[in-house]
Design goal:
This protein is mostly helical. Helix 1 packs parallel to helix 7, helix 8 crosses helix 14 and helix 9 crosses helix 12. The protein is globular, with a radius of gyration of 18 Å.
């Protein structure tokens, strides 16, 4: 699928998910609670590196941009209108990264909706969160989320090895703002500079992949199902 179609299809999925939530009383609030909890979970899982000199900035970049309850509705609507300009103006490597990011965004929104339907009007605490993972299923999609997250990180790491691309990105500031792509431009520059500062992101990427994969394995395990049914915490080392 061409990049523009891929991005627009992903943004359409996000739009459909938001409309479905708006049609059910309390569902938006439940999704917000889940996102807030997942941000706290990320802080818990990566507490040891959030304050580190080398990996702290990259961890906070993931925390701010990929986790948490930030409402991106207006940004996504603006983004959808300027996708043709994005594909025309930005280098192919950057467009590919944005397409992967849009796919991750769509999948995450769909999974959050599924979780929210199970957790609606239920406090988002460890036992309930684990039970919702179990009830929702879709382990393959959960692992796909990890793959896409790693793809975004690896793409940003690769881009840092191309100084000419960074210079091109700087030169794009004016045209990007004029085309309504200023927010995307800022995101890409933050990601580029954050990963460049690590002086190689392979260890960070491997750490994220290992921990997120271990979390999925734990939450879909029989032990987690048993503990959730008993109202106890099945994975205290990962779930706050």
């Amino acid at each position: 699928m061409p990049a523009a179609e891929h991005i627009l299809a992903s943004l359409k999925i996000v739009e459909v998910e938001r409309a479905a939530r708006a049609a059910v009383a309390g569902l938006d609030a439940s999704v917000h609670a889940i996102k807030t909890y997942q941000q706290r979970r990320f802080c818990h899982t990566y507490a040891d590196i959030l304050g580190s000199v080398r990996y702290g900035s990259a961890s906070r970049f993931f925390l701010d941009e990929l986790y948490g309850p930030t409402d991106f509705t207006k940004r996504d609507a603006q983004f959808a209108r300027v996708v043709p300009a994005l594909v025309r103006l930005f280098p192919k490597e950057i467009v590919g990264t944005v397409a992967t990011l849009a796919e991750l965004h769509a999948l995450s929104e769909r999974m959050d909706t599924l979780m929210a339907r199970d957790l609606e009007r239920t406090p988002v605490i460890a036992a309930n969160y684990i039970a919702a993972w179990q009830a929702t299923g879709h382990e393959a999609e959960r692992r796909k989320q990890i793959d896409l997250t790693i793809d975004v990180a690896a793409s940003l790491d690769r881009l840092t090895r191309k100084p000419l691309l960074r210079n091109s990105l700087r030169l794009m500031r004016g045209p990007a703002r004029a085309s309504g792509l200023g927010e995307l431009q800022q995101f890409l520059e933050r990601g580029f500079d954050t990963f460049k500062a690590m002086n190689g992101a392979s260890e960070f990427i491997a750490l994220v992949e290992d921990r997120e994969s271990a979390l999925v394995t734990a939450l879909f395990s029989k032990a987690a199902a048993r503990a959730a049914s008993e109202g106890t915490n099945a994975a205290p080392e990962w779930i706050p």
